[in-house]
Design a protein that fits this description.
By secondary structure, the chain is mostly helical. Helices cover about 75% and strands about 0% of the residues. Strands 1-2 form a two-stranded antiparallel ribbon. The protein is flat.
Length: about 300
């Protein structure tokens, strides 16, 4: 009995020693800032001096009822939707192509992944210069006889969001491809060979063998893509500042604009809490309905 109690106490001490520093850092850099933001969000405060008037949930009501913030939420959702509809199939196709034994495969993988290594600031500045009127992109289009496609890429409210999405795709698609390539390594070649022997075409093999086995990786990619789309800030802020006429504003740029540029720290804190709640609810629902079977399967395999 004493030995069992000693063993249990030792395990608890080991867990406390291993998890303690992580929990302290998590609390200090995640939980405490969230609590502080929630506290500030119920005040009308400019960030200087003592807290201003207590306004309760007025900041939340003003944000959610504002047309600019509603548009910002819509822009985030559009980017997330385009990521799923366009980036995902493109990433899967390129990953399957780069998974084949082709000449220069290592070089192609490096070239595809290289943009992801660049910082968001560097990427934004590069594309900001290339998309200027009569810049590199316009000159290339004219050289190849497509001058009719030249647009005010970052100044036209009708296309600026899609221009940003193209830059986002160029920046992040390499990560998705590498992630999917790692998933493809877990697809046994024997299953493909068996499907081919049974008379399955390449498309049928991909649809009924490869994609189902790639499902866990795809679901992880979808989760990371949607969360990243909801938190999008760096590229948009540097390239357009949310303009023109708020046509590319996201929740994060709206937060920074009001919280730091206009010194509305109470209102900005409310926007930050709203953004956190949206991401948190999505993460919980996605974990519950999409990732649960993957994690349950992993735990089952570990136990067995």
């Amino acid at each position: 009995m004493t030995t069992t109690a000693t063993t249990s106490a030792r395990k608890k001490l080991e867990l406390a020693f291993l998890l303690g520093p992580t929990l302290v850092l998590f609390a200090g850099f995640v939980l405490v800032p969230i609590g502080i933001a929630a506290f500030y969000s119920v005040f009308e405060w400019n960030g200087f001096g003592p807290l201003g008037d207590f306004v309760g949930f007025d900041n939340y009501a003003d944000a959610l009822s504002g047309t600019v913030f509603q548009g910002a939420i819509g822009h985030n959702l559009i980017i997330a939707g385009l990521s799923l509809v366009l980036q995902l199939p493109l990433s899967i196709g390129l990953a399957m192509l780069l998974n084949r034994k082709i000449r220069g495969r290592a070089v192609l993988r490096t070239l595809v992944f290289a943009p992801y290594v660049l910082s968001e600031a560097i990427t934004a500045v590069i594309w900001l210069l290339m998309l200027q009127p009569d810049g590199f992109v316009d000159q290339v289009l004219r050289k190849v006889g497509l001058g009719g496609l030249v647009q005010l890429w970052l100044a036209d409210p009708g296309i600026v969001l899609y221009t940003l999405f193209a830059v986002i795709t160029w920046k992040y698609i390499g990560f998705g491809i590498i992630l999917l390539l790692a998933g493809l390594q877990g697809v046994p070649a024997e299953l493909r060979e068996a499907a081919a022997l049974d008379g399955a075409s390449a498309w049928q093999t991909t649809r009924h063998v490869v994609l189902p086995l790639l499902g866990p990786t795809i679901r992880i990619w979808v989760f990371l893509s949607v969360i990243g789309s909801l938190q999008l800030f760096d590229l948009v802020w540097i390239m357009t500042l949310g303009g023109p006429a708020n046509s590319s504003t996201t929740m994060a740029t709206y937060l920074i604009d009001h919280g730091f540029k206009r010194y509305e720290f109470g209102f900005g804190s409310a926007v930050a809490v709203i953004l956190f709640v949206i991401c948190f609810v999505f993460a919980l629902l996605y974990q519950r309905f999409a990732l649960r079977r993957d994690t349950d399967g992993a735990l089952t395999r570990m136990v067995n």
